[in-house]
Amino acid sequence: MKALQKQRSGNGHLKLVELTEPEIQPDELKIAVAYSGICGSDVKTLQGHYPNSTVPIILGHEFSGVVAAVGSAVTRFSIGDRVTSETTYATCRRCEACMKQAYNLCDERRGIGTQVNGSMAMFVVSREASCHHLPPQMTLAEGALLEPLACCVHAALECTTITAGEVILVTGPGPIGLLMAQVIRSQGATVILSGLARDTHRLRCAHACGIRTTVMTDKQSLAAIVNQCTNGQGVTQLFECSGASVALNEALPLVAKQGRVIQVGLFPTVCEPINAYLILQRELQYCGSRSQKPSAWQTALRLYREHVIQLAPLISTVYSLAEWETAFDTAMKGKGLKILLASNETLAQQEGWLHESTALLSTTNG
């Protein structure tokens, strides 16, 4: 099978190779991959900056597909089912985090696409316990966005609580920021989403998804807009989704005293300059949010079924697996929103995401 493999550590060393199709254990599914999303962690792995990646490794953990084979102990899935999977492949099952089903925090956790082979291939293997059926109305392309949606659910609804009527700031209008804004809005809160002038297309997408207040901080005063929306009190919570300490430090003074900051974006380096003085003086609670756990997937699927989350508008471009270099280049330059790789062009063509004559199509056809 064709697979996109990071072959050794350091910058680059990513190659489309031919590998043997994976075999499955009794409790596993073999999934014919339809789409894989390019995540920020995939880009960092390509660049050699992701700290926990094993090599050689097939990249990809945001994906959807069709069950191609089931293990002898599998009971909930059949060949032909449309599925997606959580990113956790294996944990110790005995630590305190595992006992609470917080598998994302297990020290021995092995993730799909980072420690075990991922989805940027013709086939991927996952445990039955980690897999989820796609709702009938969900396209396979949308299914590839369930993982980032689950991450946002975990951050917004499990790491903290949201009350209707709150005014909440989200920094960074990438796919995570756009999904985060929608999850927060679904709880009855008012969202302010901030970005830069170069993010015009992303902020336009936010408006299409129902986010009314957006700010280009290099052209508008974020402080003035926050003060106007909160009567000068500041936002009750800040969700930092950009992974940029500049954005975080600009937003910290706009959080109300004893407010809460949820760090979702992954910083480019291990140590970043953060205004700890403001956190101390304003008694802010600063909380990290890592990945997701099983409960977040159930909530993510429920929100989609309730029609309060839009996924298709975030898909900007679909490339074939063979066009991975162009796809990663597009993602790294921030030209689109969510970039997908199609492992199975026939499935993609059936959904209207790929023309037979070209492997590039925008969301206008989604």
Automatic annotation (TrEMBL):
CDD domains cross-referenced by the UniProt entry: Zn_ADH4
Matches recorded under SMART domains: PKS_ER (SM00829)
Cofactor(s) needed for function: Zn(2+)
Residues annotated as domain Enoyl reductase (ER): 10-341
Keywords: Metal-binding, Oxidoreductase, Zinc
A GO molecular-function annotation: zinc ion binding
Membrane-spanning ranges: none
Similarity comment: Belongs to the zinc-containing alcohol dehydrogenase family.
Protein name: Alcohol dehydrogenase
Organism (species): Brochothrix campestris FSL F6-1037
